[in-house]
Amino acid sequence: MHLAIVGTGYVGLVAGAGFSDFGNDVVCCDVDADKIDRLNRGEIPIYEPGLDDLIRRNMKAGRIRFTTDIAEAMRAAEVVFTAVGTPPAADGSADLSAVYKVAETFGKTIDKYKVIVNKSTVPVGTADKVREIISSVTKVPFAVCSNPEFLKEGAAIADFMKPDRVVIGSDDPRALDIMRQLYSPFVRTQDRIHVMDARSAELTKYAANAMLATRISFMNDLALLAEKVGADIELVRKGVGSDTRIGPKFLFPGPGYGGSCFPKDLSALVHLADQVGHGLDVVRAVEAVNKRQKRVLALKIEKHFGDLKNKVVAVWGLAFKPETDDIRESPALVLIDELLARGATVKVSDPEAMPNVKAIYGDRVTFCNSMYDAVEGADALALVTEWHSFRAPDFGRVKQLMRTPALFDGRNIWPTQEVARLGFTYEAIGRRPVKPA
Ligand code: NAD
How confident is the model at residue 188 (pLDDT cuts 50, 70, 90)? Predict the structure, then answer.
C-alpha cells in the first residue's frame, strides 16, 4: 500500500519504519527541512533502540523515503497518516494547528478516494473537525479514521510491531477494510483490532494514559504517606501488585511522571472535561500529585543539607525515562531548576539526553560524559532516570569521589544495606532513610 506519514517524530518515524518493513511503500514527510536532510543522509534524529537499523534496511530496499514536499507525498498515497505533534497550548488544551494544517493540505491534494488517519493524540471531536475542514475544500470522497498510537518510547519498535491492540475509529466500511488490511500482518496471532466510532477511539487513548498516570500518582501519594507513618512503600508495592486484579505494572514510586504524553494528555483531557462541564476530579488530583512529586527530590536534598549554597549536586539521568533522549517534562529538569534556584552547583550525566538538556541550560550546569566525573567533588548524588548503567554502579568508587556521601535514590533501586555499609546516607521515595552502618 502507498502511505504518506506526516510528521517524522517518535511516532511518525516508528510507524513509517514499521509499515515499510511489512512491505508498504512509505513516504515520511515533515516541515522541518533539517530533520528531513538528516534522514536522507541516513542519520536518525532521535534515539530509539532499533530504529536506525530498521530505517536503514528499508531505505536500502527503497520502501521508505523522506521529503518536505507534503503535498506530493499525499498525492501518491492511498492512506495519509497524521503523526504531527499536538503540544499543549497556553490554556492546557491540545494545540491542533498542525493537525488542521495537514487536513487542509489533504483536502487540497485529494483527487480520488483516500483515507486520512489521525495517529496523533487528539481530543474527542477532532476527527469530525478534520472532516469538516477537508469537506470545505473538496468534493472528492474520503474517510477520516482515528487510529491512536500506544507505543512507549524506549520500546517503540516492539510496541509498534507487536501491538497489544490496534484501535480503529471509523464508520466508513471501505476505510475499515483498508485499515484492517494494513494492520493484519501486525496482529496475526489473535484479533487485537478494536473497531469503534472515532469519538470512542479518541477517548480511548486519553483514558489509557490517564489510567497509567493515575497508578503512578496513587503510588507516589502513598509513598509520602508511607514516609510519614514509618512504612516502606516498596513492601507495600509488592504486596499490592501481587493481587491479580491490580497487577504489578505502573506501581513504581518515583520522582513524578514526565514525557511527551502523560502531562500534556492529562491536561488536554481536563480541558475537554471543562468544556462540557464535567469535574473529572480523579484526573485533576493525579496532576496535582505529580506536580508536587516532581519537587520531592529537591526538597529531600534541601532538608538534608539545610542550605544548598556551595553544595555540589550530581544528577544521574535526564531523559524522562531510560532508553530515550526525550526530555519533555522530565522530572530531572524540575530538580535542576530547584537546585539552581537554591544556589547549588549541578553536575549531570545521561547516556543520550545531554545534548537536549544542554540546549536549555547551556553552561549553567556541568555536563559529564562519564557518570563518575559527575560525582567527583559532589555532596549529593540524585538518581532520576534508571538507565542500566546507573542501576548497579561501583559504589566504592562513588564514595571515594564524593565530598559528602549522600545518595538520593529517586527510583528506589539501590541496595540500601550495601550503601549503608559503605558509609553513605541514603534516602529514597517512600522508604525509611538509612544512615551509615
Ligand atoms: P514529535 O514532536 O517527536 O514529532 C512531531 C513532528 O511533527 C516533528 O518532526 C514536527 O516537525 C512535525 N510537524 C509539526 N507540524 C507539522 C506540519 N504542519 N506538517 C508536517 N510536519 C509537522 O511528536 P511525537 O512524540 O512523535 O508525537 C506525535 C503525536 O503522537 C502527538 O500527538 C503525541 O501525543 C502522539 N503520541 C506520542 C507518543 C510518544 O511516545 N512520543 C506515543 C503515542 C502517541
Answer: confident
Domain range for 305: 294-427
Contact 167, 196 (CB under 8 A): yes
Give the distance (Å) from ligand 1 centre to CA of residue 388: 27
φ, ψ for residue 281, nearest 5 deg: -65, -35
CB of 260 shorter than 6 A to ligand 1: yes
Residue 74 Cβ < 6 Å to ligand 1 = no
Task: Kindly give the distance from the C-alpha atom of residue 197 to the centroid of ligand 1, in angstroms, as a whole number.
Answer: 23
Query: How many alpha carbons lie under 13 Å from residue 276 in its C-beta half-sphere?
Result: 10
pTM of the model: 0.95
Convert 156-169 to b/e letters by CB count within 10 Å (16 or more is b): bbebbbebeebbbb
What local confidence, expressed as pLDDT, does residue 190 receive? 67
63 and 150 co-located in one domain: yes
* In contact, 48 and 156? CB cutoff 8 Å: yes
User: Mean pLDDT, to the nearest integer, of 372-396?
Assistant: 98
Is residue 94 located within the same domain as residue 224?
no
Active site (catalytic) residues: 261
Verify whether ligand 1 is closer than 6 Å to residue 11 (CB atom).
yes
Residue 434 lies in a domain: no
CA distances (Å), 417 to each of 51, 382, 411, 436, in order? 39, 18, 16, 9
